[in-house]
Amino acid sequence: MAKSCKGLAEELVKCLSDSICVKDEKRSIRDCAGEKSPCIPSECVGLRETYFNCKRGQVDMRARIRGNKGY
């Protein structure tokens, strides 16, 4: 279960590294991931929310018994 969100994390990093925020503005991926900026594509925003829900599911006791939905 610890690695159930790994695929989402890799896709989120890839999406953010291809965004304008990282390429043109020369900012770090971490800085761009925490913002709600118009230069971040909606696909990356959706991946970020899905990744957050996946990580939250890892600490939810009900989800821990059933297993995380994963990716």
If you had to describe this structure to a student in words, what would you say it looks like?
With 71 residues, the protein is mainly α. The protein contains five helices and no strands. It has helices spanning 6-17, 20-23, 29-33, 42-59, 61-66. Helix 1 (6-17) packs antiparallel against helix 4 (42-59). The model has no long low-confidence stretch (mean pLDDT 83). It holds the Pfam family Pet191_N. InterPro entries: Cyt_c_oxidase_assmbl_Pet191. This is Cytochrome c oxidase assembly factor 5 isoform X1. Belongs to the PET191 family. Keywords: Disulfide bond.
Task: Write a concise synopsis of the structure shown.
The chain has 71 residues and is mainly alpha-helical. The protein has helices spanning 6-17, 20-23, 29-33, 42-59, 61-66. α1 (6-17) packs antiparallel against α4.
Mean of all residue-level pLDDT scores: 83
Count of individual beta strands: 0
Q: Could you estimate the helical fraction of the residues in percent?
A: 55-70%
Principal-axes shape call:
elongated
Taking the alpha carbons of the first and last residues, their distance comes to 11 Å
Number of helices, counting only DSSP H or I runs of 4 residues or more: 5
H/E element sequence? HHHHH
Q: Approximately how much beta-strand content do the residues carry?
A: under 5%
The protein's oligomeric status is single chain
**Which regions contain 5 or more consecutive residues with pLDDT less than 50?**
none
